[in-house]
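Re: the 388-residue chain
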Amino acid sequence: MTLTAQCAIVGVGQTVYTRGTDRSTLELHLEACRRALDDAGLTVADVDGVIPSSLAQGTVEDFIVNLGLRDLAFSTSVQLGGASLIASVQNACMAISTGVASCVLIPAGRRGYSGERVSTGKAVTAASMATVREFEFPLGNIGAAQWFAQAAQRHMHEFGTTSEQLGHVAVNSRANANLNERALMYGKPMTLADHQNSRMITSPFRLFDCSLESDGAGALVIVSAERGRDLRKPPVLISGVGISHSDSPTSITQKPHVAGVPAIGVAARRALGMAGMHVTDADCLIIHEGFTWYVIAALEALGVVGMGEGGPYVEEGHIRLDGRTPVNPHGGALSEAHVSGMNHIIEGVRQLRDEVEPARQVDGCENILVVNEGNFFDGAVLSLRRAS
């Protein structure tokens, strides 16, 4: 059995993205779920599967009680850090393709500004971080910015990658966000000089190298591709999906080579092989980026460029909307919002439905790759295709 184009995303929904909310994370998830079902033209009575977000510590009981779901046939919890969302899509496809469920709801998002805010030490700590908690926290290696900064620093040492090249990633995201009215940074343009003058957080990351601390949530509705043809909006086919756990999975400091993200390459080969595609067939890349350097690392892991060539590639403008490989046309986590990668999949769906603002619609967009990183360089890649 293959999952190729067996299932489709037929509904997407999101809350407003903010920096400040008095609503709970569950309330945000519930609103997003209702919006996604309405987008699909379905109701809670159609849902027989739910995959709550492990990053938000959600439970299936929360959704049964608050949405009024009845007789669920499928639920599970995925523990792959930031890559959990695409892994959840994979689980939904397996459940639907095997007849276990027929309509699966996937919420995700967080209160990254008002609740589980990383810079205040209130972020949710996953069980997979036990090793880091025991052996590295006491030495001050306590946050994602520090972990990824070490990898970026090594990349700069080995390949000559510069702070300005990281800045080009940030400037590209901000330019795209200024075409996107939903983005938190809409109306707030940024130059390379602004990036270079922003304060240092942890070398080499300046403030504008870091993703936003924001509040918000989104949700997906997945059904079989056949059923999707009869619903309200054009279905977006899930043509391939792959995940990969990294080696070593317990800490970035224990990896044999910290300047790359090989699990993304493995996950991409699985997803692209399933879809019968090459990475060059993708019309757009949507990369969930906690930090600017990760876009460069992902371009290299995907095989868009060779190892060490990502910095010059972004500096030459190839990731712009009019470039060879458009990246993050919504502004990404750097400039739209950081909601556990959910806005990245939603953007992929809307690009393939031609629902985004014309100024940032990728011309002739038929295939999109969405990339998620999780825990300590785990990887997940989702291939989406416009239905014919």
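The CA atoms of residues 241 and 271 lie 4 Å apart.
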